[in-house]
Design a protein that fits this description.
The protein contains eleven helices and no strands. With about 200 residues, it is mainly α. The model is unreliable at about 1-10 and about 75-90 (pLDDT under 50).
């Protein structure tokens, strides 16, 4: 890896590694849900880009989740930053909040992505509600183990998770899981109409 690649952010380097040949993607994907001690094949690709950032397990988990995504040609010409990519629309409840949110806080977290799945497929809303509630009480080990299944389900519905936001949330989970889980639930319940919720 060149010095230029080593100076980029870990999430951009991780995304670049996951866009690499199938052999590399396979090695990264095999680490999904595994403890760090069982992911030695990932070290060759992630040790340098993640050095100095802390939260090593969060970085390895995100790399494995990104590797689950399969490159698909974009026939819609929708850019990743456009509202359609994140499931935002004119009736977006989070867009109408009176408080001014900075750009980072406006990016969709996992709770928002689960809510987008519930809104897009109303018959599955109760299941996504249970998912966001259950994930909020899991230990870090159980959460890292559960995420690959959840992300794979979202990808099968055509929904992409904002992995940079998820990386930050996973890094914070060890220190304040209740805060992270609260943000996920908050985003979910603000986005999903009450008629789809189990209240």
């Amino acid at each position: 890896m060149t010095n230029a690649a080593a100076t980029t952010t870990p999430s951009s380097t991780t995304s670049a590694a996951c866009a690499a040949p199938q052999r590399i993607r396979s090695r990264l994907e095999n680490g999904r849900g595994q403890p760090l001690t069982e992911c030695p094949r990932m070290d060759a690709y992630l040790a340098k880009p993640c050095q100095g950032f802390g939260a090593r397990r969060a970085h390895y988990t995100i790399a494995a989740l990104i590797a689950l995504e399969r490159p698909v040609p974009d026939w819609t010409e929708t850019t990743p930053s456009s509202p359609a990519h994140h499931g935002l629309d004119q009736d977006d409840p989070l867009e109408s909040e009176p408080a001014l949110l900075d750009a980072w806080a406006r990016r969709p977290n996992l709770g928002r992505t689960l809510a987008d799945a519930a809104r897009a497929h109303p018959h599955t809303a109760a299941g996504w509600q249970r998912e966001v509630e259950v994930m909020g009480v899991l230990s870090a080990d159980l959460l890292h183990t559960r995420l690959p299944h959840t992300i794979r389900r979202l990808l099968s519905l055509g929904l992409a998770c904002d992995f940079a936001v998820l990386l930050e949330d996973l890094a914070q989970w060890d220190f304040d899981p209740l805060e992270v889980a609260g943000r996920w639930r908050h985003a979910f319940f603000l986005t999903v109409p009450d008629t789809l919720l189990e209240l």
